[in-house]
Design goal:
about 110 residues; alpha+beta; Hypothetical Cytosolic Protein, Chain: A; three-stranded antiparallel beta sheet; two-stranded antiparallel ribbon; about 30% helix; globular; disordered N terminus; YlxR_dom
Length: about 110
């Protein structure tokens, strides 16, 4: 019997904004934290925070949809404080800068021999 090999390279996640499935590595993870003021959402670009995560494409249109539909509350199954627009923008900028840095890494001098 022949086994079907999937074309999927790694873990897949669904963007809570546009609802498209994509590679986990191309999505920004958000985590839930508890403080004195209640539950809030924080970016988790290194994917180290424990607990349930919410995944979002690092694109302004996905962020706008997340805010408009209150998708963080649905993803975390709880009433949460939305991050400020500046926090979302900064997280997207940092995530995309990291991706650009990974792609534009130049070889060390002399290593191309």
């Amino acid at each position: 019997m022949e086994r079907h090999v999937s074309e999927v390279e790694g873990p897949q996640r669904t963007c809570i904004g546009c609802r498209q499935v994509d590679d986990q590595s191309s999505l920004l993870r958000w985590a839930l934290t508890q403080d004195d003021d209640g539950k809030s959402v924080v970016p988790d670009p290194r994917r180290r925070k424990s607990g349930r995560g919410a995944w979002m494409h690092p694109r302004p249109e996905c962020a706008a949809t997340v805010v408009r539909k209150r998708a963080f509350s649905r993803a975390f199954r709880a009433q949460v404080r939305m991050p400020a627009d500046e926090t979302i923008s900064a997280a997207i900028d940092a995530f995309t800068a990291r991706e650009r840095a990974d792609v534009t890494v130049q070889p060390e001098s002399g290593s191309e021999i």
